[in-house]
Amino acid sequence: MARAYNFSAGPAILPEEVLREVQSELLDYKGTGMSVMEMSHRSKAYQEIFDETKQNLIDLLNIPDTYEVLFIQGGASLQFAMVPMNLMKNTVADYIVTGQFSKKAANEAKKYGQVNIVASSEEDKFSYIPDVSNLEISENADYVYICENNTIYGTKFKKLPDTKGKPLVADVSSCFLSEPVDVTKYGIMYGGVQKNIGPAGMSIVIIRKDLINDFVLGGTPTMLKYTTYANNDSMYNTPPTFNIYVCGKVFKWLKNLGGLKAIQKMNEDKAKVLYDFLDNSKLFKTNVRKEDRSLMNVTFVTGDEEMDKKFVSEAAKAGFENLKGHRSVGGMRASIYNAMPKAGVEALVSFMKKFEEENL
Ligand SMILES: *Cc1c(COP(=O)(O)O)cnc(C)c1O
After folding, report:
1. Are both 301 and 167 inside the same structural domain?
2. 250 closest CA partner among 240, 265, 260, 239
3. Ligand 1 centre from 284 Cα, in Å?
4. Which residues line ligand 1 (CB under 6 A)?
5. Which candidate, 29, 67, 169, 267, has a CA 20 to 30 Å from the CA of 44?
6. Cβ-based burial of 270 (10 A; exposed 0-12, middle 13-18, buried ≥19)
């Protein structure tokens, strides 16, 4: 059984090595006689998995001890509410809207306080990242919010906004661990893991410790308070144990590759293959402004919807799966996360060249 080249935006490709290791440990994890998914989260064997997973993430991102790492059930969308519930002391926040996910986050925050949209690229279909070097940040803003990599549109912040001293909250779901980052620039960095790290259903929240405090908006449920996770090392209740275990394997895989500097180089090489082709193609093009291009999600079109459909369908027949663009924008999208080998991108480009010759 051959594995497809899977360009899905999420849930997405995982390293084959990791899947094979999980398979080999599935029935009997290291002589325990049981699967990780059958284990008590309070057992010694599981605690070791958990501690190692957390430590490897801390090592990969160089997370200082002024930050806490939380594993929280629910997708990234749950953070759209948890962030304001836990941070909105003045009930004011500034949002930069560069796509559907930041727009959804802003709309969710409106339930709890005043939301100021301090920059947006919506008028040009989110095809670029606005200039965020000198924004009018609200004086009493509790935080400034961005979605750092826009999964649907294929754009990425190459420079973080100047938040004028306010905590920066960033949804990094689709660029998590794709390159080195300076964690200290963020108040909160969070992401759903199903894009670049593991199975769907969990988010990792990296939060500056001073933002975890007694404040929450009235009525915030126990399970939606960051303190609940921080005070119990993410085990107030049963955490998504198997999910954390798979994430831990991916962290080890990344460490063995040489860490985030190494994966960044690989991601840049990989994305270049596709962008270089798109820049020279007579059939395909990308509408994303060059300086804002994502290394993880590459969006492109032919300019003819019927041709796009034909391409997606023929590509699938040739083993290139999930190239259809998001339903709200159409066209194509190749998500080329960490686990996508360069050979996968090269094979896709060869296929696109052939398709172009046959259809021009
Ligand atoms: C996929 C995605 C989300 C939504 O994640 P869920 O886990 O489905 O809630 C939010 N933000 C970004 C950037 C994403 O890519």
Report:
1. no
2. 260
3. 27
4. 10, 75-77, 101, 147, 151, 171, 173-174, 192, 195
5. 67
6. buried
Distance CA 268, CA 178 (A): 10
Indicate if the alpha-carbon torsion angle 129, 301, 294, 169 is positive or negative. Answer: positive
Is residue 180 domain-shared with residue 195, that is, in the same domain?
yes
| Candidate of 169, 174, 294, 326 to mutate for ligand 1, largest count of ligand atoms within 8 Å of Cβ | 174
197 has pLDDT over 80: yes
pLDDT of residue 85: 98
Alpha-helical (H) ranges within 3-43 are 16-25
Question: What domain range includes position 87?
Answer: 17-257
Nearest-CA residue for atom 12 of ligand 1: 173
Same domain flag for 80 and 224: yes
Residue 4 lies in a domain: no
Identify any residues that bridge with 156 across adjacent strands, giving them in sequence order.
Answer: 149
What local confidence, expressed as pLDDT, does residue 256 receive?
A: 98
206 has pLDDT over 80: yes
Residue 10 counted as domain residue: no
142 C-alpha to ligand 1 centroid (Å):
23
Looking at the structure of the chain, the number of domains it has is 2
Which pLDDT belongs to residue 2?
82
d(CA 195, ligand 1 centre) in Å: 8
Is residue 92 within 8 Å of residue 113, measured between CB atoms? yes
pLDDT tens, position by position, 122-160: 999 999 999 999 999 999 999 999 999 999 999 999 999
Q: Encode pLDDT of 278-321 as tens digits.
A: 999 999 999 999 999 999 999 999 999 999 999 999 999 999 99
pLDDT at residue 104, rounded to an integer = 98
Which tokens belong to 99?
């796509």
48, exposed or middle or buried, with CB in 10 Å at 0-12, 13-18, 19+?
exposed
DSSP state of 351: H
Q: In this structure, are 263 and 219 located in the same domain? A: no
Q: Is residue 209 part of a domain?
A: yes
Residue 62 lies in a domain: yes
The answer to whether the Cα torsion of 64, 260, 339, 172 is positive or negative is positive
179 and 152 both lie in a single domain: yes
